[in-house]
Design brief:
The chain is α/β, with parallel strands linked by helices. Helix content is 34%, strand content 22%. A 7-stranded parallel beta sheet has the order 11-10-9-12-13-14-15, with helices on both faces. GO terms for molecular function: NAD binding; phosphoglycerate dehydrogenase activity.
Amino acid sequence: MAASSISSLLSTPNLKKNPSLSWKVSMPSAFTSFPQQTRKLEKMFVVMAMDAKPTVLVAEKLGAAGLDLLKEFANVDCSYNLTQEELCTKISLCDALIVRSGTKVSREVFESSGGRLKVVGRAGVGIDNVDLSAATEHGCLVVNAPTANTVAAAEHGIALLTSMARNVAQADASVKAGKWLRNKYVGVSLVGKTLAVMGFGKVGSEVARRAKGLGMHVIAHDPYAPADRARAVGVELVSFDEALATADFISLHMPLTPATSKVLNDETFAKMKKGVRIINVARGGVIDEEALVRALNAGIVAQAALDVFTVEPPSKDSPLIQHENVTATPHLGASTMEAQEGVAIEIAEAVVGALKGELAATAVNAPMVPAEVLSELAPYVVLAEKLGRLAVQLVAGGSGVKSVKVTYASARAPDDLDTRLLRAMIIKGVIEPISSVFVNLVNADFTAKQRGLRIAEERILLDGSPENPLEYIQVQIANVESKFASAMSDSGEIKVEGMVKDGIPHFTKVGSFEVDVSMEGSLILCRQVDQPGMIGTVGSILGDSNVNVSFMSVGRVAPRKHAVMAIGVDDQPSKETLKKIGDIPAIEEFVYLKL
């Protein structure tokens, strides 16, 4: 159950939903949910889609090992050097697209896919050539391969660092030109020099480790890096301006974003120590290249070693490329045999997994959830979606759902409990039954915002053992009327609550009434006068109609007062059967809900 629910986050079936049924309510329901028959149809849809094999378009060269993995699962179309027009034409026939850095996956590409494109795989780290906003809006997962080329990129950064310091490239060209200029190519030592690593992610931290081994003093700037991780490597995190002012060498390892575009410019070069040396194996756009030429000519920057450029390939007569104090390589950061094969395998596995409906730990436009966390949260993922579905089906027709409050009760510290996946599932559960939109992990937050649905989250820290990630989840919908008045809390919101017992989601509270039922199949909630024989009477009506009861629980305020009976059923009762239940004199209200 947990696996299928997680899979549904990334699949996009277009299935018709049936209205829920209720009696003793003045306003008709406008809300819908998936019946069991549709669940079966959804499974059939997935099986048929898998039998037909999805199509993966590989738009740039990929290692043979990765292609072999793809071909085991999908039809693979290797079409290289496509124009934007050609890509937009082909994409409507593809379920997944794999690119490197040379193909621009624009909004037009996603719009041209007609909703078929489910996954874009970036064979590498940077994703600035993919329009993430458009991907998210179209429910398309974007995954990358951030680990396979980490060491290769770090090694290339160190290679540029050392070769620049000793003028290796210039001396090599001089010797091959028949010259022997030993005095001209005197270099500088690395021992004791300060290296500023700008961006302390995977590659940056690996560069730092290697530079420490060369005897360099390493500092780093990264507003998102945890200080304890930097200390573990022996690196001090400093401010951006302090890094510029104190570094002898600056190595760039930040992504290209609006905030980092041309972050090295005339103003920042002016803050640097005279004679600084710069290495860039990240993204060309983080440096204002014209400003760098001016800094080189002024002697502010002594040398630069560049593997990436704003436009690739750069023009042959580029003043930057032709500068005698610049060492240039043609974007070779990931270009080792081992890294190329590793990237191909990593991106192929991520794309295939996503097409199967598995959550990718390398997703860049969805919560990145490690495999061990996914495994632990699996039953809570199911619980979250079903609580959302349950709560919204309790809303009376005509009431607009605009505000949902989610409470997570846990003995774990907030930093040890990532609720993004759970929030996405609650949004899925709330929105799908009342709209034609299919919500997945990628577009959950966007869809909620687009529909004016505000999700507020609250955490309650409990005493006790943090062995389980959550004690319970509570969902409240405010400013609405309920088709089941007993679901309203004392403060006037629809309130439902659930927990996981022995790996199974349980519905434990509705309004102020405590119940305890497994969240499987469908559910009948009845508010009744607490008197003998009620369980038998309702059970007999269902039994006579051949409706199997899977569980039954009664929560009451006090003996012989009001009680709420929760009945789980495996089969959908007919309208006549439900009417018979509603006609029992002691039953004051009831509602039939699909989980």
